[in-house]
Each structure stands twice: as structure tokens, then as C-alpha cells.
Amino acid sequence: MTVQLPREGVLQIGDWLVQPALGRVSRGDERRRLRPQLMDLLLLLAAEAGQVVPKDRLLDEIWAREAVAESALTSSIAELRQLLGDSAQAPRYIETIPKRGYRMIAAVTAGAAQADGPAGALPAAVLAGRAGVPAVAARAGGMPP
Prior knowledge:
By secondary structure, the chain is of the alpha+beta class.
């Protein structure tokens, strides 16, 4: 299913405060901007924290309207790891599951406290998928989360 990922609220992924609406992650005084596809990729992995997200699903949901090779996913994961200070050899955030996909291994907490805006708007939108409830709305159909 093709999805549109939530862009409101905040969540904590490991040491990083994720602010989808601002397109950034921050840790202490450190702030980093993420392009929209990287943010979508991060949010999808966070929505399925602890679960293996198959490569085909990531390609379908993040690059739904584009014909891309698997290398686009691989390079985006590498870019995301670099932004988060993560490593494929000793992962703290994103684990590669060979021949299958990727898994968010860092702790994910919705509604983390922050200075730039309200907290708590993301649990239903992002973390609901962990309980078997659709975490995001369909792009074409506009289904509610």
C-alpha cells in the first residue's frame, strides 16, 4: 500500500529528536536537515520499530511514483545513517537484515519534550502501526490513520 507519512508532532529516536514538520533531527545543540524522502524513510522505519521492513515495501511506499533501483534505497539508508551518526557495521539506529530489509533498533518514543512546538501529536499517526493499526494514510485514497 502506498502511504503518506505524518508530518506533525515530534518523536524521539535514540538520542535524536525528530521534527517531521520542520524536516529536521536534533540532538543537544546539533541540528540536521533531512530531505523529504529521508524523513519519510526514517518515519516509516520508526513506525515499524523492532520489525523488519522489507526492501520492496520501502521502495513502494517511499518512491511510489518513481522508477528507482534498489541502489536508491541503499544510498538513502547510508545517508540517513551518516546523518544520525550510525554505522552499518555497529548499528545503533538502523540494522540491515541481509536479503530482506531494514529494522529500526533504537528506542522510539512519541511526543518527546521539545522547545520548538507542541509535543504528543505523533503517537496515533506514527506508532499505531506497532499495534497492527495502519500508521499512515494512503496517498491516493486519503484514508484516515
